[in-house]
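Q: Could you fold this chain for me?
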Amino acid sequence: MSRTRTGPDLMPMLFGLATAQVVHVAARLRLPDLVASGTTGVAGLADATGTHPGALRRLLRALACLGVLVETEPGTFAPGPLCDALRSSVPGSLHGMALVVSGPEAWRSWGELEHSVRTGQPAWDKVVGTSHFAHLAEHPEEAEVFNTAMEQFTLAVAPGVVGAVDFTRFGTVVDVGGGNGTLLAQVLAACPDSRGVLVDLPAGVAGSDRVFAAAGVTDRARVHAGDFFAELPQGADAYLLKSVLHDWDDDAAVRLLTACRAAMAADGVVVVVEPVLPDLAAPEAAGIVMSDLNMLVNTGGRERTADDYLTLFAAAGLRQQTRVPIGPFDVLVARAA
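A: Sure. Below is the predicted structure, expressed as structure tokens.
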């Protein structure tokens, strides 16, 4: 039997806002990069970041307590166990995610969580005055940060996605809402006979030329910049949606899946890559449950259970064939019902 938890157990939760901002500011100042490259003293770090030495040392101590850094002697810091995870150019880094999740607009939106809980509407729209994706379209510098965060996160799960589905069967793969094409590039690199089409808003596909060139797939990938709700390329063998459906409510998700169903070849498939909520909430599900709230606050979307996806597929004229878990995500493959 578990013991009753007390006030002190709750304190880390109450100061969660402080922890998030410590990590966010460390990412903005690129402190993990600087320390990893050999700048370890407070004075040198303050000079490199243009910050107040005394205040910076207090931030560095907090990072040491969080495991991002280690204070080896008073005022001197070395990389900690989580340092690489917050560096800007290390594979698997969450540097971009740290910038996005606690960025100014997202931070203010989470401050209006009660509004979302009372109304069911995204607080982002109330705080910013426009939708999340409309805001990114109007602010290319923020869109670039967002795309980088998605690229870093996608690279970590791309091998699992490629391993979960035999993409070599498909002549053409359409990556719907694929951002700068990170996942599509990995799919095409593993399937030398396949071609791909990247579909996203102009702000989303920015940087795709670089991504395709780095993967060596430029000659087999093309970009369709536009609203995927308005138009999808027709007749492809597979329509890939990673971290797309959770941005939208059920009505919009069904519309998008229906559009994929109508566009795909007769024997085509829809491949959905999303985390799947457990039927019952428990501490080990905290990550996806918090992501579900994040969708509520920022986009009006939601995470879903396995049964929720079956319902969405059925409403769109699709039938799920396989479900393969890959770490924090599941890969769901559906065909025409």
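A (continued): The first strand starts at residue 69 and ends at 73.
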